[in-house]
Write a structure and sequence with these properties.
2 copies of one chain form a homodimer.
Chain A: H1 2-9, E1 13-14, H2 16-26, E2 32-36, E3 49-50, E4 60-61, E5 65-68, E6 78-86, E7 101-105, E8 117-120, E9 125-127, E10 130-133, H3 135-139, E11 145-146, E12 157-159, H4 167-175, E13 180-184, E14 188-194, E15 198-199, E16 210-211, H5 214-221, E17 228-235, H6 239-252, E18 256-260, H7 271-277, E19 281-284, E20 286-287, E21 289-290, E22 296-300, E23 303-308, H8 312-330, E24 340-345, E25 349-350, E26 357-367, E27 370-375, E28 384-388, E29 394-395, E30 400-405
Parallel strand pairs in A: 1-20, 6-7, 14-17, 14-18, 15-16, 18-23, 21-26, 24-27
Antiparallel strand pairs in A: 2-13, 3-12, 4-11, 5-7, 5-8, 6-10, 9-10, 19-22, 22-23, 24-30, 25-29, 26-27, 26-28, 28-30
Chain lengths: 412, 412
């Protein structure tokens, strides 16, 4: 207890919102870079992207049929002499149609300049090189011509700054003549796990040793935030081993470094000591939150550093609550925090340890127009955090409760 | 109108639920294969996965402190002679502690057999090779020992059949001693786009030509359904070119083939003709739905075939509504259709063309415990389909309306 009070006096323990704010103050926007469209999936638009070409790029037919010159409607069915055929993809231009002539045209075919309408083939009769068109089609409102630029005008904004590019964006950009887009560079994120007991799967285990399972959380969660990832491996619980990783990180000049373990007050909890010795600057060393009592946020050269605690549950929660949102913000994604909302609690909830904010794994259940939420089962994948605020020891079934969606949900 | 009636009589036009059912009848479950844990992210568990080792694998300390032998509580503070130190990761076993002796132990250290408790170091006094422990600690309920198997027992089910593996699953599996998992093989999916007007970006365009933008939808959307993807390129609107792709597909022996375009009733809509000539069997050729009036579902040898229409909006909608769910079902994902729910309409909605079911792009808005939904803006990324049922020409603001989430949402 005493320790926590001292630390708060020292200004190194933060509330969650204050921690998010401090992290935000130290983030640098990633620089712009060009990405070919076929390598741009999931990248973040650095600025608004506008259309280089209109869509469609030329007036095109929306039906298989006959394209006609302007003609005065009047006396019943009308005959036209067929002079050519315009398939989709035909690049040889067709001259302006003379009165009394028509062309066969296919969906997507280029409509000759000056043409007034396309008439669908199934409503006409073709015989001996002539087509007969019922009079009502010549007066119909539908022209079956998609005019150049009628869907998207040149210069129109297609994708806003900070949007993560999905398949539909790339489809749109390609159809507007773009070959490449300007996106935020991917943050280069390095990670390492500390613990003298940790080994890789390949190494095999002796009694007393464990697999470095947090590596799988890093490798499984961080890429979903759009980063390029570098594994700095495992450091034993010695000042020298941890310092060696910070030395390598210093030469690497990445954007963000994340570690797990070695963050408590114990004799072998040496991450902070090694970080300081390497020249790191500490911004906070704990959150008034479970998990997160021991977490270091600082900067080493130009690299932001998150020292996370060791328990996998804490690593996962803090990756989603703090690290992931920071990585998205660096790329200019507009929503910089986790998506916050309220949901109805699907069961009553008794809270132990209610002296401090708790983030609990939750499962959002959408049904009948309501957002419900329940605690995730022990081995179940959560999709949100349920926030249990300090001082409240009991929540009733049906109560509205704060939740934060994890990841980068498309839901707004 | 007549055409549609004939087709329905012929049994080739389906309702959406009937189409989903028919697709389900023809799906084959993908075979099992082994994947190393570090290559298993996003793969689908072929069967229940159970723990090969308990967690923790050995009795471990949860604190830095001193591990003690059993001792009778009694008379005030007690002294113990320190005989050894057990750091996390120490593999040399420590013998059973003799009465009156103790070991320093760190969090994660192996607790010697027969030990009763760990006492946290900050509550004890160490001097001259001896530690003095206050009597109340010797009677405390908390032992600060995590017993072997207390978190996960050997043989316990860790991940259910049909679950897509996330980072947290891989963390868990690695900590239970797994090196690899049995997953469903990825469906091999091929795609091609038809249209004589289509070119790749690299080819450059002449007037009358377009970029094959649907390729970006295929490449952007299909991988999110866990498949391996093969691009069969572009086929012009000729029987020969389309037949050539089907011939290559026949030699390739993939699981699913998807095409775009060439699906209407026109002279150049040759996908069905080429499919039949290649030996394909047709199960349906249209849906009583917009989009989807022209869509072919069939089988060519062992390869399922989805012939989608050409407009990108239709391609995207049908990929999410029909193709994606089929791909997940083939991998054994439990939820085989799109996630269906209801949401409150955030604005009134007037419906044209209400003679047939329509799937409209929607954006789900979660707020204050309510699920709202609105139509997606013209260039906005949708996250759901809004279902407009036939015969209803108007929906009011605040009305509950059916929506289907797109993709493979974690939300239940």
């Amino acid at each position: 207890m005493r320790k926590e009070v001292i630390a708060i006096d020292g200004g190194k323990i933060c509330s969650l919102p204050r921690a998010q704010q401090r992290i935000g103050e130290h983030l640098q926007r990633m620089p712009a870079e060009d990405a070919d469209l076929d390598a741009a999936l999931g990248r973040v638009a650095f600025a608004d992207i506008t259309a280089e070409k209109p869509v469609p790029a030329f007036a095109e037919s929306t039906r298989d049929g006959y394209v006609l010159p302007p003609c005065d409607p009047g006396n019943g069915a009308r005959g036209f002499r067929i002079v050519d055929e315009i398939a989709a993809g035909r690049v040889q231009p067709v001259e302006r149609l003379a009165p009394g002539t028509a062309c066969r045209i296919m969906t997507g075919g280029v409509v000759p300049a000056g043409s007034e309408r396309v008439v669908p083939h199934e409503q006409c009769v073709e015989q001996d090189g002539r087509v007969t068109v019922p009079e009502h089609l010549l007066q119909a409102r539908a022209s079956y011509i998609r005019q150049a630029g009628s869907e998207i005008a040149r210069g129109e904004r297609l994708v806003g700054e900070g949007v993560r590019l999905q398949g539909e964006h790339l489809e749109l950009l390609s159809s507007c003549g773009m070959h490449a887009v300007t996106v935020a560079a991917r943050p280069a994120v390095g990670y390492f796990c500390t613990g003298s007991e940790l080994k890789t799967i390949a190494a095999g285990l002796e009694n007393g040793q464990k697999v470095s399972s947090n590596s799988f959380l890093m490798a499984g969660i961080l890429p979903s935030y759009g980063v390029s990832l570098k594994d700095f491996g495992i450091a034993g619980d010695t000042f020298e081993e941890i310092s060696a990783v910070f030395a390598r990180a210093g030469e690497w000049h990445g954007d963000v470094m994340v570690s797990t373990g070695g963050m408590g007050p114990g004799k072998y909890d040496l991450v902070e000591k090694a970080f300081l010795a390497a020249g790191g600057v500490v911004f906070f060393t704990g959150l008034a939150m479970r998990p997160g009592r021991s977490i270091l946020f600082g900067k080493l050269g130009r690299t932001l550093f998150f020292g996370l605690p060791g328990p996998p549950y804490a690593v996962r929660t803090l990756l989603h609550a703090l690290v992931g949102p920071a990585l998205l913000a660096m790329q200019g994604v507009k929503q910089t925090g986790p998506k916050k909302m309220e949901a109805y609690l699907l069961h009553p909830l008794e809270v132990k340890h209610h002296e401090v904010l708790q983030l609990k794994d939750g499962v959002l259940v959408l049904s009948g127009g309501r957002c419900g939420v329940r605690l995730a089962g022990r081995l179940e994948s959560p999709n949100c955090h349920i926030l249990l605020h300090p001082g409240c020891s009991w929540y009733g079934e049906g109560e509205l409760i704060e939740v934060h969606l994890v990841g980068d949900p498309l839901i707004s």
